[in-house]
Automatic annotation (TrEMBL):
Residues 263-305 form the CUE domain. GO terms for biological process: autophagy; innate immune response; negative regulation of Wnt signaling pathway; ubiquitin-dependent protein catabolic process. PROSITE patterns: C2, CUE. It comes from Ciona savignyi (Pacific transparent sea squirt). One of its GO terms (cellular component) is cytoplasm. This is Toll-interacting protein. Residues 54-170 form the C2 domain. Keywords: Autophagy, Immunity, Inflammatory response, Innate immunity. It holds the Pfam family CUE. Coiled coil: none annotated. Belongs to the tollip family. InterPro entries: C2_dom, C2_domain_sf, CUE, TOLIP_CUE, UBA-like_sf. PANTHER family: TOLL-INTERACTING PROTEIN. One of its GO terms (molecular function) is ubiquitin binding.
Amino acid sequence: MAEAAQALGTPKTQTTNHGEVVIGELPNDFLRMPNPTNYDQVANDEKMAKEMAAMEVQQQNMMSQMMVVTNRFKITVLEAKLNKNYGVVRMDPYCRIRVNHRVYETDTSYNGAKNPQWTKSISVPLSEPVEHIYVEIFDEKSLTTDSRIAWTRIELSEQAKKGEQVDDWWPLSGKLGEEMEGTVHIVMSIAKVQQATPMPPMQPMPGMPLMLPGGYTVQTPGVMQSAQFYQPGMPMYQAQPGMPMQQQQQQQQPTPVPQGPLFTEADVKQIKEMFPDVEEDAIKTVLEASRGNKDAAINSLLSMQ
């Protein structure tokens, strides 16, 4: 077995009262310190993996979405049957629909004359209840102003308000008289729709690693004080004992000051000359994280080298 071990390159050992000892010729790497470069590389890889994992969690939080339920008023304008063709040539009608403070139009039915067809579907987000809609039909003109040839006001029925689909023809008024201009075919309903609303992006906390283009990471300047409260997108407040937090926030509300650009292209160019191997996008990101402080940005870039 000893000969087989030696053939495989394993040093021969002998058991003594003090444990196993190596006998015979010592291997070439005996008592040799391991290469520190390998350990540095492993440590750097481990650190980078942790930073990438933290960055991935941050990106997932930024992309997280909150589902909200909204009411949408769905209208489909199909066609119209008009009783008169106004003008010398065939009319080119289009339809205009007003829902509360929103206005929509169909495409023009060229040469539609008295039987225009549109099949136009509209989905209207509702921020307030709808009691009625206005429908107007115009004749598109090339050289003069479009002329209104028919109109109507449609009161929403209880069926439509409850979410049931209403499919009907409504009479049109015009120059021929009240409800004498023809009819318009409309399908409508109110439905509840789940809509994904993006969450506000996370702001970097002071001292939090920031990932830059090209795989660089840098610590954002600043240290969080334990007596301060911070929420992304909100001002920072200093806690005062014996006073309600809401009152403290009102008293400490900072006066808004017009802010100019944090840095200029000249600043970017100056730092680029000092760090020619760093991309401009990375320099701009560091300047933004440093709130335009060039000295802090330079120190951060030096720590990346």
